[in-house]
Amino acid sequence: MELLTSFNNWGVGSVSMLGISAPFIATFIALFAGFFLNFYLPFWKLRKVPGPAPTFLVGHLPLLAKHGPDVFRVLAKNYGPIFRFHMGRQPLVMVADAELCKDVGIKKFKDIKNRSRPPPTVGSPILQETLFLSRDSRWSSMRNAIIPLYQPAHLASLTPTMQSYVSALLFNISEAEKEEYIPFSDLVLRMAIDIIGKTAFGFEFGLMNQFSDQRNDDETERDNDITNFLKEYKLTLEYLKMDLSSSFSTILGLFVSPSLQKIFKKILERFPGTMDFKIAQNEKKLCQRIDALIGKRSKEKNKESVDFLAALLNARESGVSKDLFADNYLRALTFEHLIAGTKTTAFTICSTVYLVSKHQKVEKKLIQEIDSFGPHDLVPTTEDLQNRFPYLDQVIKESMRFYLVSPLIARETSQELEISGYILPKGTYVWLAVGVLARDPAQFPEPDVFRPERFDPACDEEKRRHPYSHIPFGIGPRSCIGQRFALQEIKLTIIRLYQHYVFRHSPLMESPLELEYDLVLGFKHGVKLIALKRGA
């Protein structure tokens, strides 16, 4: 006992002699334990799910740097249809099997209905309150209230608006067809933004006219509110990127929990000059700008308007959805259309035309179908778009298989559940690797060959294929609510383009095209085409 007491006194005394207090040691131990648990606990909970050993701090980010987006195909080949991928500290359970995707997206939906939130969106009110990232009962209530706006009758009322902007696209192509090349992806994105401006906000954004004015050195004055709003929207998209140019809190989100990331973000937003400060200020201006646009539309009280914002305002004023569409949610829902309905739709139109212009047999067959519809000035109705162009449907599906706008679908478990024999605790991030499914040779023989006929309903390959092997718009109740709207715009644009033109690749465009991987896929340097006028 004496010896033990002496040893204890010696230890405390020695610590004091070194100038280190007991509270300091306790704090150090607590911080070390917290740091250790922050990185090790997520791995420990999912240690039985197969996958390569993660590197401390960075997880499997070195593998991502080595293989790029093909990393998930490589890991699926080595570890099977369900495996772990560590995005920094955060383990993701990756699912690369059509039947398991059905389990996650449909059969067990009630236990895994929420989306996991990527680091760039953490702490952002306007993004967190969108339908895309809303959770639980809030999500289901919002979805049920919005679904009627995407029914065929309402979409049919938007066709004339879409057609007017497609005509503007054709005009701009005719103006630029004698140039070295047509900046096709830029033009199509402008059109997509203009369409959303009118169909979602009820405003004329004027980007197609602006392109024409720039070519003619026209200094026409524009609505400053709209101009500034579009600048802030563009900045928001830039800030959603996940690379070394991201904000410190976004990068930190790879290494700490979302709750800790949110705290750091709130602190960093207070320091001018930081990227977090710039993002917060831009979002503040953006929210004020959207609120002003909503206020302007609210005062108009035009019951005849068919745009999305007018429908939401009418629903709120009727009292049916007054609480559901409070100002902050109305703002987020309207802005969500601009994010979800522009780059994604424009990318699909561009990738389709890019691929068709590269495959002459496909182009010939597509033009035959379009020409059989009627004269080149005949505009298809909504019903025509749905029923009269089966080969175009196949071409679009194959284009979306080749270039998936979003090759990953993110989910998060709301309680413990079992998938493929593995127990996943509450809060597990489960991501569906739909990009891997789209290039699976078992489902798509010769996956690197562009062959739209593989989606022909009469084709044996289509009959044998698992129904959930190609899910570009998502799966189950959380699939893209704007799918019909997007396809209507894509089909109408492609039909009208090929009624008047065929396209060839510009020699100034790189081959193969370089892609950029943000929250959605994009073309790094754009699609540059040569337009050849068709005969009458």
TrEMBL record:
Binding residue positions for heme: C480
GO MF annotations in UniProt: heme binding; iron ion binding; monooxygenase activity; oxidoreductase activity, acting on paired donors, with incorporation or reduction of molecular oxygen
Positions of transmembrane segments: 20-41
Keywords (A to Z) from UniProt: Heme, Iron, Membrane, Metal-binding, Monooxygenase, Oxidoreductase, Transmembrane, Transmembrane helix
Annotated Pfam families: p450 (PF00067)
Organism: Rhynchospora breviuscula
Reported cofactor(s): heme
Designated name of the protein: Cytochrome P450
Family the entry assigns: Belongs to the cytochrome P450 family.
